[in-house]
Amino acid sequence: DQQVKQNSPSLSVQEGRISILNCDYTNSMFDYFLWYKKYPAEGPTFLISISSIKDKNEDGRFTVFLNKSAKHLSLHIVPSQPGDSAVYFCAASAVRIQGAQKLVFGQGTRLTINP
Amino acid sequence: DAGVIQSPRHEVTEMGQEVTLRCKPISGHDYLFWYRQTMMRGLELLIYFNNNVPIDDSGMPEDRFSAKMPNASFSTLKIQPSEPRDSAVYFCASSLGGSGRSSYNEQFFGPGTRLTVL
Asked: Which of A101, A25, A111 lies closest to A66 in space, CA to CA?
């Protein structure tokens, strides 16, 4: 039972354009959401997060949007750069129920930025 | 700081053999996590420790899997006996406790151990 789903295994975007990565979740108890980025042969690194009390969080070129009614979040990267080519994992946590440390990850989306 | 250190980086073994994966967390971090990455399921949390004590092992797939943290600077994940379906990349991560249970602190991942069971 996949509680966090990233339905697009891969995405290809032209350099300079906007990249939009999507994530859906099924557990309504999730109240904290994160995106991690992973390069080949390296571990994932934290990118950006959002609490369920917000619907948007921005950090430079990266913005995460949360739509609680649809149980959907998305990561926008604009403008996309070649160095953004990586696998992106969406993750969620039910802080009030299980504590903030227990993360449930999606399957990942491989983003390729074409020059 | 060297970051989270995992060894070995690659492990190839035969079905039925015992496999031990090792992890050294970042000094001062009091949470340690073991994850498994597969194409089908992405990153799955297997178990995590707080101050060397296992807090949640509900992600450990079977009794063949066990994890220990004898001290703050070392943890092992053992698979005995190993099976081909255990082939995956295993990550260790650590984080600070910060304000406690309700406060998320960034998890820092090691480079992973790629396990292949033939």
From this structure: A25
Give the phi and the psi of residue A50 in degrees, each rounded to 5: -150, 140
Instruction: Give B-chain residues touching A40 at CB under 8 angstroms.
Output: none
Beta-bridged to residue B10, according to DSSP, are B114
Burial B17-39 (b: 16+ CB within 10 A, else e): eebebbbbbbeebbbbbbbbbee
Q: In this complex, do A101 and B102 lie within 8 Å of one another by their Cβ atoms?
A: no
| pLDDT per residue as tens digits for the range A68-108 | 999 999 999 999 999 999 999 999 998 777 777 889 999 99
Return the SS3 of B31.
strand
Question: Do the Cβ atoms of B86 and B24 come closer than 8 Å?
Answer: no
Nearest CA in chain A to B95: A101
Q: Is B86 helix (H, G, I), strand (E, B) or coil?
A: helix
Q: What does the alpha-carbon distance between residue A56 and residue A53 come to, in Å, rounded to a whole number?
A: 9
Tokens of B21: 């994966």
